Amino acid sequence: MKMLVTAVSLCAVLLSAGCTTPTTGSGPEPGTAGEPPVGAALSRSNPVDDRLFQALGGHAGIEALSESFVRELAADEVTRAFFTRTDITRFHRLIQEQLCVESGGGCAYTGEDMRTAHAGLGIERRHMNAVVEALMRAMDKEQLPMSTQNAVLALHAPKRADVLDE
Amino acid sequence: MKPYPTLLAAMLLLPGLASASGNSRIIATGGATAVEGAAGGGLVPWALLSGYGDRGEAGATAFASVVRVDDYALEVVGASVAIDNRVELSMAKQRLDIDSVIPGEQLEQSIIGMKLRLGGELIYDAGPQWALGVQMKRNDAFDVPAAVGARHDSGVDLYLSASKLWLHGPFGRSAFLNGTVRATRANQTGLLGFGTQGNRRYEAVAEVSAGLFLNRHWVIGAEYRQKPDKLAFAREDDWKDVFIGWFPTKNVSVIAAYADLGSIAGQDEQRGAYLSLEIAR
Hints:
The complex is a heterodimer of chains A (166) and B (281).
Chain A: H1 2-18, H2 51-55, H3 58-75, H4 77-80, H5 88-102, H6 114-118, H7 125-141, H8 146-156, H9 160-163
Helix pairs in contact in A: 3-5, 3-7
Chain B: H1 5-18, E1 32-33, E2 39-40, E3 58-69, E4 73-83, E5 87-97, E6 106-119, E7 129-139, H2 143-147, E8 150-152, E9 154-166, E10 174-184, E11 194-196, E12 203-213, E13 218-225, E14 239-249, E15 252-260, E16 271-280
Antiparallel strand pairs in B: 1-2, 3-4, 3-16, 4-5, 5-6, 6-7, 7-9, 8-11, 9-10, 10-12, 12-13, 13-14, 14-15, 15-16
């Protein structure tokens, strides 16, 4: 009996650990839409899931969040070091585009892919952790509900591998 | 709580040694400290490593826990260091007051633990974080265990753990699951010694913990820990608990739980409060 319980519970854990489907639907491919938010969603047979975009407060909310995020990155001594030669205006715009695309807002992302954009910067795990904490503080400042914050974090977590320089 | 000078010194020293090394991992990802000294929940060791150090960093923790059930009180103190988010070293001292059953008696054991993260990352990887752990236990008050049929005054537990956190889980909350499989021949985790005269075999037991983060600082959950039942003189039951954890900062956490330790040394239905305080750096 004990062995059976052992086997069953182990299987349950392994199964559930394997079921890691990305939770939030991705937006349209970069470059498919012009001026958001009309058009893109209607022209598709599968309507774009823009619930996260709405939860973030649409374009205005994403702009405010991006600004808070940039401020937090600049205020933290660990993350600040990576932005000494960054065009902050462009960075701010790309962050907005990315959040908009990923949340289903139907924007176009005009930057490089994550791996190219972060190549050679020497970003280690501890740096990445500081970026995540900056994003958390920014989302707290914008008073986003916990579920919205978690959706944003879950969207970005799998990208860590592309950003790390190791 | 009786002072255990060596451990208390370690509790003060270890966090100091690691203080220069950073603690970048996200809050609560160091877990709490389980009763045997490893990073985990209350009763179950998890695959995550103690403290908040990531690669290139070292974290350290010190903890004290009390489980007060109907006829007994278990007190535990201990400390740990984790290096590079790869290796965790821990020690713990347990004392079970059995005065209400045998006046003046207590059961004691010391545990040295080592845990190796095999791979995976709790939050960022699609799969779980895996860790292999060993707990070297020595019973420090073997008269009573020997009298009731225990064979050895020391023993080794080996365990494999898988932990996974889903950031955007049920109700939009972060959900946690850990499964641990342990090879052991300990009686009441070693407080009543290891093996019996007629049964020295190791058994595989399963331990499961699940938690839901209400926000970044509060988590609720439950645990179940299978245990062997080797000693003939009294039945031994599986352990379980429901807990609430509070992580106000990365430096301190408090876990409160309702624990059901079942039958211990002939006294059935040992249930009561569990309280644990951890300091981390």
